[in-house]
């Protein structure tokens, strides 16, 4: 139903509706039963937020942050896969650099769920975000720690001259020294 959902979003002009109405719409989404499928939630994340976030020229408004937090309280994984990954892929630094991506992750992970950012492909812009997420976690579950270490090892040649990569590896070694052999 993705084409129909995209068509409905377009018909309702959800990508351009006022942000205070976006907050209400996200509230209605949370009340739906059964929950949206992963695919439907990903389509809605893209339709509702991607254009808005990529066109920001100043920090997000409180309405936009409230809508993001509301949506992410139930659908954080599709949100991270669609929106955060797209923001981090953008070539320009602009207002949506690492700090702003971290703000979006704060919305996505405010409910204390697993840090989905650790499952995204690493990029130079994502390295400080991963480090920030690690700083917020008390202890990573073993499966995520293993995934992080494996990813860092596999991608080491690509980041041979990266200061951000060196900082992230140092942070991992410092925070998890008892688990690293």
From TrEMBL:
One annotated GO biological process = interstrand cross-link repair
This protein's name: FANCE protein
> Pfam families from the entry?
FA_FANCE
Q: Boundaries of each Fanconi Anaemia group E protein C-terminal domain copy?
A: 4-180
| One of the record's GO cellular component terms | Fanconi anaemia nuclear complex
Which organism encodes this protein? Alca torda
Cite the Gene3D superfamilies for this sequence. Answer: 1.25.40.480
Origin: domain of life: Eukaryota
């Amino acid at each position: 139903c993705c084409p129909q959902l995209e068509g409905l979003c377009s018909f309702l002009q959800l990508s351009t509706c006022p942000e205070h109405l976006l907050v209400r719409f996200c509230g209605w989404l949370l009340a739906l039963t059964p929950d949206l499928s992963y695919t439907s939630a990903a389509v809605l994340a893209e339709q509702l937020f991607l254009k808005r976030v990529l066109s920001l020229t100043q920090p997000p408004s409180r309405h936009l942050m409230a809508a993001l937090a509301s949506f992410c309280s139930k659908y954080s994984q599709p949100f991270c896969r669609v929106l955060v990954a797209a923001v981090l892929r953008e070539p320009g630094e602009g207002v949506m650099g690492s700090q702003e991506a971290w703000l979006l992750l704060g919305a996505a992970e405010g409910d204390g769920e697993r840090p989905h950012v650790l499952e995204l492909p690493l990029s130079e812009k994502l390295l400080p975000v991963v480090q920030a997420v690690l700083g917020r976690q008390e202890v990573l579950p073993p499966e995520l720690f293993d995934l992080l270490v494996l990813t860092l090892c596999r991608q080491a040649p690509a980041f041979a001259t990266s200061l951000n990569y060196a900082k992230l590896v140092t942070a991992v070694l410092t925070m998890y020294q008892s688990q690293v052999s």
